[in-house]
Amino acid sequence: MHITLDEIARRAGVSRSTASRVINNHPHVNPAVRERVWQAIRETNYQPNLPARSLASRRSQVIGIIIPQPIHTLFADPYFPLLIEGIAQVCNERQFSIMLELATNPTGDPYRHIGRQGFLEGAIVASAIEDHFLSQWLAQESIPVVSIGRISTHPAIPYVDVDNRQGARMMIEHLLRCGYRRIATITGPMNIVAGRDRFAGYCDALDAAGLPLLPELIVEGNFSEQSGFSAMQSLLQREPRPDAVFAASDMMALGAFKALRAVGLSVPDDIGLGGFDDIPLAAAMTPTLTTVRQPINELGQTAARLLLDRITTAARDLAVERVILPTTLVIRESCVR
């Protein structure tokens, strides 16, 4: 049976025009009425005619997800699929589609096509590198934008983030409680706020413990497995070598683990190891990885809700929202003494 908008309206006990306003995310609809209409849609699996809606309303119901990272990063790091899944869940509930934009040319402007054709109603940017391309795009863009991750150079951009600094500090404090003292770190990229914040948490914990910040124990990575492998190789050249390593992402921790195994060193018997993210791989490693859990799926869901609320409500009626989600220390086997 083909379900029509008239049938949805009849089941919800509203007029056809009210049902249409709900489907088109019109802001001025009673919440109880809105829920009745969505309940009817869920019960019947009603699928609106999206092209017709776009022509009638002059709205595309499409948002962009912008990840200005190389394509191989997106498919190699489980963080991004979990993030996109969260965004998609909310967009599906609210009848929006998503378009994924990647940085196919790492040396060029990854934002050059975004919003230029007037097709996108808004955009979520994730893992944004703070460079002149980002600044130029944000200064010129007229569509609503929400960032996953704080953008320090643009405080007026709404964002959702986790408490990266506190999360990293919790990890170092745990390593200290385990008896480690010569603790190295493989940082994230310093042109991304998350990289700087996690490094700041590392510094905070060492300072609180009265331990010096040693430059030879700090190596910058880029959140990838390969950068973790290379950074660990570099750290193993230091004398004396570190007795524990905090990698600012689980993928870098995996790379560090492989570098240690390649030279016959054992985790945690020879060197303790901690990560950040708690991707599924962390619990599957042998030994299992002690890490800092961030709610990746919830990050995506929250960002999508912030953006869709800004699209369906006049922007001037909304304050700049800044949502910080908590992190959790997950203690496993990789730093047991």
Automatic annotation (TrEMBL):
Keywords, in A-Z order: DNA-binding, Isomerase, Transcription, Transcription regulation
Listed SUPFAM superfamilies: lambda repressor-like DNA-binding domains, Periplasmic binding protein-like I
Domain annotation HTH lacI-type: ranges: 3-57
Any Pfam family matching the protein: Peripla_BP_3
Keyword Coiled coil appears in the UniProt entry: no
Gene Ontology terms for molecular function: alanine racemase activity; DNA-binding transcription factor activity; transcription cis-regulatory region binding
Coiled-coil residue spans: none
EC main group: isomerase
EC number(s) per entry: 5.1.1.1
PROSITE patterns assigned to the protein according to its UniProt record, in alphabetical order: HTH_LACI_1, HTH_LACI_2
Transmembrane segments: none
The protein, known as: Transcriptional regulator, LacI family
Species name: Chloroflexus aggregans (strain MD-66 / DSM 9485)
